[in-house]
Design brief:
By secondary structure, the protein is mainly alpha-helical. It folds into 6 domains: about 80 residues, no CATH class; about 90 residues, no CATH class; about 80 residues, no CATH class; about 100 residues, no CATH class; about 60 residues, no CATH class; about 80 residues, no CATH class. It is built from 20 helices and 8 strands.
Length: about 525
Amino acid sequence: MWVQEKECRGIIQESWHEGASRDLMDKLLLCYARLEEWGGGMLKEMRVKLSEHRKELQRYRSRRDADGFRRYNEEKHNSIKGLQDENGEWKDTEDEVQGIISRYFYDILSTRTTGESMPDRIKFARISEEQGDLPEDVNRTLACLIPKVKQLKRMVELRPISLCNVMMRIISKIMANRLKPCLHSIVSEKQSTFIEGRLLTDNALIAFEINNYIKSKMQGREGVGGLKKSEKLSGQVINYDKSEVIFSPNTRTEDRVLICECLGVKQTVKPGKYLGMPMCVGRNKTEVFGFLKDRVQAKLQGWGNKDLSKQEKLTLLKTAAQVIPSFWMNLFLIPVNMCEELERKMNAFLWGRGSTGKGVKWMAWKKLCRPKECGGLGVRDLRNFNLAMLAKQGWRLLNETNPLVSAIMKAKYYPQTDLLNTEAGANASYIWRSIMASLRAVKAGTRRKIGNGIDTNVWKMPWIPRLEDGYLTSAMQNYLGHITVNNLMVTGEKRWDLTMIKDIFYSHDVEEIKRIPLPLSDTRDS
């Protein structure tokens, strides 16, 4: 709020120059004192505005029309009236609410596994070659509490956002950049974010596959464990209020009851969502992904009430509306009819007038999706974009970008072969079937890089760079179906056995093979 005032910038500059000879923290304290002094007058104005705001809120409360009711609810949720304490008792005084908040964060920041509390403040190691500990107040942070629900009752229903000072952000960025080259070796492979090459969707993919395995487990006995162990290893506390447990069909009823009682969690059949991703996708895909249509429609309706030019509408479509389903398209193949419906709504918004969307559509959506140099406007074809995002997941599995995800998917779906030669299978999850739907694009653009040739089958893998699909066009002889590329090389030498190659393959295949360079070192195919 203060930075919007014209005088604020001048006060900061003056106090910073005045303390030029002081150290960093003294400068910040001086700046703080000057702003506090100047803000005293601002507070008086704020109190007047606050009084007016309360009067306005009272007017909205007395109104019975829809707009008044909506405005009253919006204003009402901007303050914490009270909270339930650890015993479930309602507390509404300022001191009691502050005590609940303080105890909540103290419990989170304490190490429960050892019984020892963490230090009051984080002490950083040296950040330069010389001695120079950071001042103790440099990491002082304000926490802004944002409600997750409309009817706020408990502390867990508030999301804390840290408001660090600028110097702390700069120091954190420097430290992050210095740690970046070695983070992949010190951060657990189970952590899917903050590391280059790992994505947030990796955890959702693993959770979906685990859920699919549990649902399809009809025989045998399976134990449930790992919660306590993960708590000790990570140092984090499990939130049992948000936790639910799902059992395979072969789990006995008495075992289910016992586990739920011991963990203090509820049993569920459908695990809902994890990281925003649905964990259960049945036959009715339109119902599962119907929320995408609602979100896009809400955006378009909000913009439809504004007087926008065609260029402004096109920009909103590209940068906002078409981005909404992107996150879910990373893992799931959205039904064709839903993609088409979303495109119809977007096309109606682009050419329509006002909130009705009525108007002459001067160009079909498929033409709009063409590149600008081909007469289109460069908007996304949602179906093709969806397949491209899924093909990216296939490419990451092929290159083992995330070793944990790659190991799980390979063990479950293609333990004896590679990704390019596998099939969906009988009990495949919807994520795996979605990736399989994009495999044609992956195969078309994938080529094996020949090293020693041991890992590449001559007939079943794409290793010819210049051919359309990478596969040989020569007819395969049955007794040669198992040979690998290293069999086409002169024994003990890094060159092609041209005599053998000419006897087995067509002339144009021979020419393509001869163009492939062989490395001098003994490297594996990739």
